[in-house]
Amino acid sequence: MTTITETPLASLDDEKRLISPVFKGETKPGYFGFRGEIALKFAQQVGDEARPPEIRFDQVMIVAKAGETTIPFLAGVALSLEHMQLLCEVLGDKLSPTGKYFFFAGNLDISKRYQIAYGGTTFWVLPLDEATVYNELRDLFNIDRGDLKKLDTAGKLQIVADAAADFNEKFQEITFEEGLKIMGPIKIPENRPV
């Protein structure tokens, strides 16, 4: 049974950054997955009270391979494109130049899609209108709903990660700085699912 300690997710777990898990476990032999949230910026704590993070990466989907030092697949949504910088600071050398990373930004024009090189890797950057990261990726990768019906959360997560590994569609390439100039105001979502 593959455990989180065998993957690059171990230090994130130790730092208590992997929060609100919907799933946290082996997806298939040799692979470990997580669905939930990543705390990007912790709130200042007073005494021993627990406070939610100030900034987080939501609806996160990660699959990591045992024995590897980098994360091959990551997807999630942030309120603002500028939070990509925090994500890269938190993940650091866990990001790979060959990884497949999908950053949904809540303040991008819903008709736009970009590729942004940042933090030593490339992100596919997409808007998230009303759907979930899971549904958006399923559509993006053309995964048939029927292929997923009988699978548990681990199986569904692994199918999405496997499809991401084969995804090579090119979006318009812009710099992070250009992205910051074109992003809109932050929209505050209500009751977004994980």
Could you outline the blueprint of secondary structure elements for this entry?
Elements: H1 10-14, E1 18-28, E2 31-41, E3 55-65, E4 71-78, H2 83-91, E5 95-105, E6 114-118, E7 121-127, H3 133-140, H4 145-148, H5 153-165, E8 172-174, H6 176-182
Question: Notable features of this structure?
Answer:
194 residues; single chain; 8 strands; alpha/beta; globular; 8-stranded mixed β-sheet
Quick recap of the structure?
This protein is about 25% helix and about 35% strand.
Give a structural overview.
24% of the residues lie in helices and 35% in strands. The chain is an alpha/beta fold. It has one domain. The protein has an eight-stranded mixed sheet with strand order 1-2-3-4-5-7-6-8. Helix 2 (83-91) links the parallel strand 4 and strand 5 (95-105). The chain starts with 9 loop residues before the first helix and ends in a 12-residue tail after the last helix.
Question: Which stretches are poorly predicted, pLDDT < 50 over at least 5 residues?
Answer: none
Shape: globular
Classify the helix fraction into a percent range: 10-25%
How many individual β-strands? 8
| Element pattern in H and E | HEEEEHEEEHHHEH
Distance between the termini: 25 Å
Q: What's the pLDDT, averaged over the residues?
A: 93
Rg calc? 16 Å
Task: Classify the beta-strand content into a percent band.
Answer: 25-35%
Q: Helices and strands: which structural class?
A: alpha/beta
The largest sheet is: 8 strands, mixed
What oligomeric state is this?
Answer: single chain
Numbering strands along the chain, what is their spatial order in the largest sheet? 1-2-3-4-5-7-6-8
Number of domains: 1
Number of helices: 6
